[in-house]
Amino acid sequence: MMKNRIAMLISIAVILIIISFLIYNNKFSIKEGILYSQKDVVDYKDYDKEKSVLVSRQKAIDLALEVFKNGLDIEINSNDCDQYITIYKESLEVQQYKWTISWSRYNLKGSYICEIDAYSGKITSIFIYEPYNKETNNNELSKDDIIELIKKLTNQLDIDLNQYEITNIKKDNYGDLEGVFQTIGFTNKSDVEDKFTVTIDSGNKSIVEYQQD
Fold first, then answer.
1. N or C, fewer C-beta in 10 Å, the chain?
2. Lowest-pLDDT range, 3-12, 19-28, 133-142, 171-180?
3. CATH code for 31-130?
4. 132-213 domain in CATH 3.40.720?
5. Mean pLDDT, the chain, integer
6. Buried b / exposed e along 57-88 (16+ C-beta atoms within 10 A)
7. Stated pTM of the model
C-alpha cells in the first residue's frame, strides 16, 4: 500500500514537473510578430531577472517618433498611418530584447520602421520607404556630401562623427526601387567593433536606412 502511494506521488511529481516546464517555456519565450503590451513584457522573467528595467512601450514609440522628426525631418501622424509595435528577443543565449515600431501611411505613401534596444533605449536600426522621384539626378554623393546629409541624424543619435571614419562606400540596390543608392560603412577610430552603416538615396539626397552593426 505504501509502495503504491509513493509510486503515485512520484508520478504526480513527474507530471507537475513536465507541466511546469511546458508552462515556463511558453510563458518566457517571446515570439516575433506578436503584439505585446507593456504588462506582458514586465511579467516575463529571464534568468530570474525581472523585466521591469525595460524601456516602456510608450517610451519606445516616443523615441522612434523623435528620431524621425528631429533626425530625418519626417513627421508621422498616427491619424494617417497604421501602427504596429512588437518586441522580440534576439537570441536564446543573450538577454537582448528589442522593440520594433512601424508605421505605414495609407495609400502606400510611405513606410517607416525603427528598432530600439529595450534595455538602453538606443536606436539600433531605421528603415524608410517613400515613393521614389525618378526626375532627380542619379549622381553619387561625395564623402563631404554624405557627412552633411547624415549629420542631423547622427546628432540625434548622439553619434560624434569626428570619432568615426568612413571605411566603405558602395553603390547598392535597394529592393525594387530604381535610382542610385549608396551604402556607407563607418567604424570608430578607437574601437573597430563599434560600427554602423547608412544607406542613402543619392538622387533624392535622403536617408533610407540606418543600421548599427
1. N
2. 19-28
3. 3.10.450
4. no
5. 77
6. beebbebbbebbeebbebebeeeebeeebbbb
7. 0.74
pLDDT in tens, 46-81: 433 435 568 888 899 999 999 999 999 999 987 888
Domain ranges of the chain: 31-130, 132-213
CA distance 51 to 191: 30
Assigned C-alpha cell, 40: 506582458
- Of residues 36 and 148, the one with the higher pLDDT is 148
Q: At CB < 8 A and 24+ separation, what contacts does 107-115 make?
A: 112/68, 112/74, 112/76, 114/63, 114/64, 114/67, 114/68
Residue of higher predicted confidence among 161 and 32 = 161
